[in-house]
Amino acid sequence: MMRPRETQGMQLEECSIEISPSHQLRWIRGLYENNIGLVDFKEEATELLIDCKFVIGICKNNPFDFVLAPEVTDYPFFYEHELHSEILPLTRNIYSRDVELIRSWLESSWSLGKTVDTLHFLQELNLKIYRTFQYQRRETKGVQTPAETLETMSGSCRDFATLFIESCRVLGIAARFVSGYLYSSGITGRMSMHGWTEVYLPGAGWIGFDPSWGVLADFHYIPVAVSRHSEHAPPISGSYFGTPKEFLKSEVDLYVTRSHNHLVTT
Fold it and tell me: What is the number of domains present in the chain?
């Protein structure tokens, strides 16, 4: 899952994917409308190479030009019954053992009986993670649980997104994980894929929040895959035959550059 998802403001204008060894590539649209490339290899090899280049045309419209439905402008709110039945899985916590700990952590931001502006509240939660937790790029496999992130007060982008998602779900707000690319003029050289959060608010639809930077996601964010669980949206997954010691190393070179109104990822 490396091919960008097109949106109202983003159009995939060039897509080049080269893979070796010899293979057959098939595309499907997954459960969450992600573009998933299935690769069947035709021969044995000692090296796997995936070389991609994407050119995305950007329409610089205001991504925050929306009006929330009246029933959700203030929190707490409840989704309309028919809508709630559709998004119910995205309101249920994955890390159920951490719910009480998350609820306790949220007490300084919101307490039962308190009414707050929904969008302002969510952005304050976004900023709270950004300001109080230390960003740490981790090479270890998997995602930290919310409890681990709260205990260490540090984590990666996926860890922060997971904490934000699970916090929203504790509050009954539908949220999902987004994996993709991020362009920033302040980032130079080699990059990694980025992870952030989307929250569903009637009247606006899916709104992106990035607790790693404390901002709402705009046209600098290029989504690739969305999922209920952050561990279900890896850019590359699969298996190989051999002994554990035969897997020597993996290398990733990711660059996101800007050319006029286009973003180029390689």
Answer: 2
Question: What's the CA gap between 89 and 176, in Å, rounded?
Answer: 10
- Whole-number Å distance between alpha carbons of 90 and 174: 5
Tell whether the model's pLDDT for residue 11 goes beyond 80: yes
Parallel/antiparallel/unpaired status of strands 154-155 and 134-135: parallel
| Cα dihedral 233/125/84/179 (nearest 10) | -10
pLDDT digits (tens, 9 = 90+) for 46-102: 889 999 999 999 887 777 889 999 999 999 999 999 999 999 999 999 999 999 999
In a 3-state reduction of DSSP, which class is residue 232?
helix
- Please answer whether residues 210 and 177 qualify as being in contact, where contact means their C-beta atoms are separated by less than 8 angstroms: no
Helix then strand then coil, in percent of the chain rounded to 5, is 25, 30, 45
Q: How many Å apart are CA 143 and CA 126, to the nearest integer?
A: 19
Are 167 and 227 found together in one domain? yes
| pLDDT for 150 | 97
CA distances from 174 to 162, 232, 235, 236 (A): 13, 17, 24, 26
CA angle 159/104/132 to nearest 5° reads 45
Entry pTM? 0.92
User: 55 exposed, middle or buried (CB, 10 Å; 0-12, 13-18, 19+)?
Assistant: middle
Query: With b meaning 16 or more CB within 10 Å and e meaning fewer, what string describes 189-224?
Result: eebebbbbbbbbbeebebbbbbbbbbbbbebbbbbb
Does residue 243 register a pLDDT over 80? no
Within this chain, do residues 217 and 196 fall inside the same structural domain, yes or no?
A: yes
Question: At 186, which CATH number?
Answer: 3.10.620.30
Task: Name every residue whose Cβ is closer than 8 Å to that of residue 151 and which is 6 or more positions away in sequence.
Answer: none
